[in-house]
């Protein structure tokens, strides 16, 4: 048995894998939509302005959360935080950033699909 922390690491790794696969799926599908019919896709973004703004806001938020995770890493490298914060703080931050990114990609995909 791995213990409590081991179980959490396995669960987080599994969730990260699922989120990564979904991220690749939606990124590829969005790219295909935009490349096939760029004018239609752009028109859909403008027609669904509120949904598009929400998706872009989520994307920007995911970038901010990602940057916060990098600050935690730098704090550990500089010795300002202990190394355990990589597992207890940065990993959940990275998981949150990835989730926000996938949700924003999924929303943009659904806006631009044909």
Key terms for this structure?
elongated, 89% helix, mainly alpha, 0% strand, 114 residues
Nutshell version of this structure?
The protein is an all-alpha fold. The chain has 4 helices and no strands. It has one domain (3-112).
Low-confidence stretches: none
Q: What distance lies between the first and last C-alpha atoms, to the nearest angstrom?
A: 49 Å
Spatial shape: elongated
Order of SSEs: HHHH
Summarize the main sheet. none
E-strand count: 0
Structural class: mainly alpha
Helix segment tally: 4
Could you tell me the strand content as a percent range?
under 5%
Level of helix content?
A: over 70%
Counting structural domains, the number is 1
Round the mean pLDDT to the nearest integer and report it. 90
What is the radius of gyration?
17 Å
Q: What does this molecule look like?
A:
The chain has four helices and no strands. By secondary structure, it is mainly α. The chain has one domain (3-112). The chain is elongated and about 50 Å long. The termini are far apart. The mean pLDDT is 90.
């Amino acid at each position: 048995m791995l213990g409590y922390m081991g179980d959490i690491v396995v669960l987080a790794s599994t969730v990260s894998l699922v989120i990564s696969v979904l991220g690749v799926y939606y990124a590829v599908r969005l790219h295909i939509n935009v490349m096939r019919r760029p004018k239609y896709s752009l028109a859909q973004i403008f027609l669904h302005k509120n949904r598009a703004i929400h998706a872009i806001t989520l994307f920007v938020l995911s970038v901010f959360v990602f940057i916060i995770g990098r600050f935690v890493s730098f704090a550990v490298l500089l010795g300002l935080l202990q190394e355990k914060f990589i597992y207890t703080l940065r990993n959940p931050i990275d998981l949150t950033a990835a989730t926000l990114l996938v949700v924003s990609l999924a929303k943009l995909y659904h806006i631009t699909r044909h």
